[in-house]
Automatic annotation (TrEMBL):
<feature type="domain" description="1-deoxy-D-xylulose 5-phosphate reductoisomerase N-terminal">
    <location>
        <begin position="4"/>
        <end position="130"/>
    </location>
</feature>
<feature type="binding site">
    <location>
        <position position="216"/>
    </location>
    <ligand>
        <name>1-deoxy-D-xylulose 5-phosphate</name>
    </ligand>
</feature>
<feature type="binding site">
    <location>
        <position position="219"/>
    </location>
    <ligand>
        <name>1-deoxy-D-xylulose 5-phosphate</name>
    </ligand>
</feature>
<keyword id="KW-0464">Manganese</keyword>
<keyword id="KW-0414">Isoprene biosynthesis</keyword>
<feature type="binding site">
    <location>
        <position position="11"/>
    </location>
    <ligand>
        <name>NADPH</name>
    </ligand>
</feature>
<comment type="similarity">
    <text>Belongs to the DXR family.</text>
</comment>
<feature type="binding site">
    <location>
        <position position="123"/>
    </location>
    <ligand>
        <name>1-deoxy-D-xylulose 5-phosphate</name>
    </ligand>
</feature>
<dbReference type="Pfam" id="PF08436">
    <property type="entry name" value="DXP_redisom_C"/>
</dbReference>
<dbReference type="Pfam" id="PF13288">
    <property type="entry name" value="DXPR_C"/>
</dbReference>
<feature type="binding site">
    <location>
        <position position="174"/>
    </location>
    <ligand>
        <name>1-deoxy-D-xylulose 5-phosphate</name>
    </ligand>
</feature>
<feature type="binding site">
    <location>
        <position position="203"/>
    </location>
    <ligand>
        <name>NADPH</name>
    </ligand>
</feature>
<dbReference type="GO" id="GO:0030604">
    <property type="term" value="F:1-deoxy-D-xylulose-5-phosphate reductoisomerase activity"/>
</dbReference>
<feature type="binding site">
    <location>
        <position position="124"/>
    </location>
    <ligand>
        <name>NADPH</name>
    </ligand>
</feature>
<dbReference type="Pfam" id="PF02670">
    <property type="entry name" value="DXP_reductoisom"/>
</dbReference>
<feature type="binding site">
    <location>
        <position position="150"/>
    </location>
    <ligand>
        <name>Mn(2+)</name>
    </ligand>
</feature>
<feature type="binding site">
    <location>
        <position position="149"/>
    </location>
    <ligand>
        <name>1-deoxy-D-xylulose 5-phosphate</name>
    </ligand>
</feature>
Amino acid sequence: MKKLSILGSTGSIGVSTLEIVAAHRDRFQVVALTAGNNLELLKEQIEAFSPRLVAVMTEELAETLRRMLPDPKPEILAGVPGLIAAATTSETEMVVAAIVGAAGLVPTAAAIKAGKDVALANKETLVTAGHLIMGMVAEKGVKLYPVDSEHSAVFQSIEGHRNEDIKKIILTASGGPFLSWPAERLADVTIADALNHPNWSMGKKITIDSATMMNKGLEVIEARWLFDVPAARIDVNIHPQSIIHSMVEYIDGCVIAQLGTPDMKAPIAYALSYPGRVATGVAPLDLTRFSGLTFFRPDLAKFRCLKLAYDALDAGESMPAVLNAANEVAVEAFLAGRIRFVDIPAAIERTMSLHQPHTLGTIEEVLFVDRWARDKTRELLHISD
Ligand SMILES: NC(=O)C1=CN([C@@H]2O[C@H](COP(=O)(O)OP(=O)(O)OC[C@H]3O[C@@H](n4cnc5c(N)ncnc54)[C@H](OP(=O)(O)O)[C@@H]3O)[C@@H](O)[C@H]2O)C=CC1
Ligand SMILES: CC(=O)[C@@H](O)[C@H](O)COP(=O)(O)O
Ligand SMILES: [Mn+2]
C-alpha cells in the first residue's frame, strides 16, 4: 500500500489522481490532501478518501472547512505551513505535486528534503529552480517521477538506455487552438478561444500556456533538468493529434516514442505505480482510426513564448524563474480580461530584458527573484496585485 500526499487535489491533475486511487484502493492510500479555495470539492474528497491531514490556502478557509465537516475530522491546516506539513508528514511515501504555478515550489522542495518520492506535475518547480531541485533529489536519493505527459513519454522511452547514447529529445506539441490561425488574428483572441484546447482538458493556466506555446517552452526547461540534456538537443515538433507524447532519438539513429490516447490518467498512474503498471480506464488507442499522424516545426515568430523560453535557458541562472513569474502574471491578467493575448509574450520579453541573470543558490533566492519579476511585470502592465 503506497501512502500518498496529493498537493492540489482539487485541480485537474489532483482529480485524475484521485480517480486512479479510487480504482486501486488496494494499492494506494491518501494521507494528506491540499486545496486552494475549492472547499466544496475538498469536502467531497475528504469524505471519499479519509485523509488524516488537509491544508487550504488561508486560516479563514480552514475555519470554514472545520465547520463544514462532521466529527471525526482530519487535522486542518492553512497556508504554506499547511502545504509543507502535508508534503512532509511522516506516513507519506510519495507526494503528488499538482499545485499550479510557482506556489508549488516550496512544498515540493520540502517533500524532497524530507526524503519523499515525488510524482511531479508542477513543471514550474523545475523551471524556476531546476538545478537546486535536481541537486536535492541526488543528495536525498529520492525518486522524481514525471507526470507531465511529454516527460512521462521520454521517461518511458529512456528506460534501459544510457544518457550518453541520447542524441536528441523530441517533445511533441499539439500547437494549441491557434495553430492554423494567421499571426495577425492573435490580437483578436478571446479568453474563450484561448481556453478551447483541441486535445486536452486541463486547468486554465496551463491551457493558456498551451495556446501561447509557453507550455512547450516550460517543458523544454523541465526536460533539460529532468533528463540532463542541454536545450540544443531538445527539439519541439508540432503534432496536432497528440498521440505520440514525445520521442527520444539515439546515436544509432533509432527513435523510441510513447503513444496513447491523450488522457492524463495514464502518465499519473505510471508515476504512482512505477515500475509496475495499473489499469487506468484510458480509451485504447486504435491507430486505424487516424488517417495520418503529422509533424512539423513550430513557427517561433508566431509563438514567441516558445522562443523566449529557449532564450531564458540560454541566459541561464535566474532567467527561467523570471520568465516563469512574468508569464504567470501575464496569464492571470489575460484571464482577468486586463490585457490582450498578444500582450502576454510582450510583457514577458520586456521583464526579461530588464533582468540581469545571476546565480540562485537557495530556494529563498528563487522566491526573491520570482517576487521581483512579478512586481516588474505588473508595473509594466500597469496592474496592481
Ligand atoms: N492539467 C493537466 O492535464 C496537466 C497539468 N500539468 C501541470 O500540473 C500542475 C497543475 O495543473 P492543473 O491541475 O491543470 O491546475 P488546476 O488549476 O486545475 O489546479 C491547481 C490546483 O492547485 C491549487 N492551488 C492553486 N493555487 C494555489 C496556491 N497558491 N496554493 C495552494 N494551492 C493552490 C488549486 O486549488 P483550488 O482549485 O482549490 O483553488 C488546485 O487544487 C501545473 O503545474 C500544470 O502545468 C502538467 C501536465 C498536464
Ligand atoms: C497533457 C500535458 O502534458 C500538457 O502539458 C499538454 O502537453 C498540453 O498540450 P500542448 O502540447 O498543446 O502544450
Ligand atoms: Mn505536457
